[in-house]
Amino acid sequence: MDFGCWEVSVWKEALSAYPSRIETLSLNKNKPDLVSLDDFYCNQLPSLLHQRNPNPFITTPELSKLMQWKLSRGKWRPRLLDFVSTLDDAVVKSASQKAFQSLPDVSKAVSDLTVLKGVGPATASAVLAAFAPHLTPFMSDEAMEAALGNSKDYSLKQYLKFADKLQMKAKELSSEGDSFTPSDVERALWSFAVGQSSAAQANEDPKNKPSRSSKRKRKN
């Protein structure tokens, strides 16, 4: 699926496949906790954050769990998890309160969170996406590659470009009466990329390649 694709049905299909892609990744990559971590991130955490009115915040245990989700869904970097898990809870609470209050200024909100050790723009984007999916998509490698053609630059400047492109794409896809958030766009892009990767791996698996004898039978 090309980022420039304007067919809403194609994006809907990719987005609806997201849960099954999570399950596939969990099985194929031996990540048994990914399904429960994804449920926490997508369903439980947003509610927890919004219940804390009038000054929402995230806790250190929640940030640690979010980091586990991020690393399980992408590349595993254990040092980041170590850094985040040992952060003082009061410091995390204060930084996240500032960040949430800074929205819709995405640049300031990301900067408020990246003062925390182990939290770069990508992790900050995951925190903000859980709180404000209509503004701030998660900076996944797969979606970055699709939207910008580059997934190696994790700078704030690159994230702002990425968020802007996904905001515009969400508006474009919502113009027909459907409702897409930038976070929906990110998940659809991730889902499609993982589906493509899984299909390619299945084709390369020797068990799925026909034997010479079966090839001969087909010719006859």
Query: What is the percent of helical residues?
Result: 55-70%
Strand composition percent = under 5%
Query: Which ranges are low-confidence, i.e. pLDDT below 50, for 5 or more consecutive residues?
Result: 211-220
Radius of gyration: 19 Å
Q: Which word captures the global form?
A: globular
- The biggest beta sheet, please? none
Total domain units: 1
- Cα end-to-end separation: 37 Å
SS elements, strand count: 0
On the 0 to 100 scale, the average pLDDT is: 90
The helix/strand series, from N terminus to C terminus, equals HHHHHHHHHHHH
**Category from helices, strands and their pairing:** mainly alpha
What is the helix tally? 12
Region (Disordered): 196-220
Biased composition (Basic residues): 209-220
